[in-house]
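re: ur question from earlier - yeah i can do the single chain one, its not a big deal. heres the input i used so u can compare w yours
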Amino acid sequence: MVRHHYTTTQLIAKEGWNHIVFTFMVFLLSYALSFFSWFFFFVLVVTIYIYRNPERIVEESDELTLLSPVDGTILKISKVDLKDGSEALCVVIRKSIWDVGILRAPIGMEIIEVKNRFGLFISSGSSLFSNLCERKTFTCKNKFTSFKIVVSAGRLSQSIVFFNKNAYKANERFGFLREGEVALLLPLDVRIKVSLNHSVKAGESVLGYLAYKDNHDKQ
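and the output i got, formated as tokens:
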């Protein structure tokens, strides 16, 4: 896992600055040599686009609202069995390289544990992706519930970047993924709003709502 200091709000994500400077220098060289300068200018524009870092306005601000943690398309909504014998509602979002790469907190949360699984950077469409890909699993909690965020890196991701912070507000930037999948493992009583193949935006689109639980109800 790559851990950086807390993110910035520039129009271009700092994770792409080195790539952009490199492609810009190559473009200048190609322009000076009159060697396919149009092609390298196109590469520069594409690189800037991949690392764009737009601001996002939350559709709903209720503290029970669950936002999308990443831009992409809803790939899966199902009930799954966890290793501890419990069950969870799994929502998987597939992110292409053309989607914004910034990861955002789906709800106000504290990160309790991070588990790393080192693996291969392979296509997210491969049948081997789930078993062999590079993956980071975050166990999170807030005052209402606990849940997991599973980030899997695809073929075009060199790494999975997370920022050096443990507590986040809803919609706050917490990492960067160039391409791959993000899965949320949620309590079964979460009310899901989206459906399969639904396009979502990180920190803006509402995935669903947590069930309200009064502490007095447990007594």
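Residues 123 and 137 are 19 Å apart (CA to CA). not sure if urs matches, ping me
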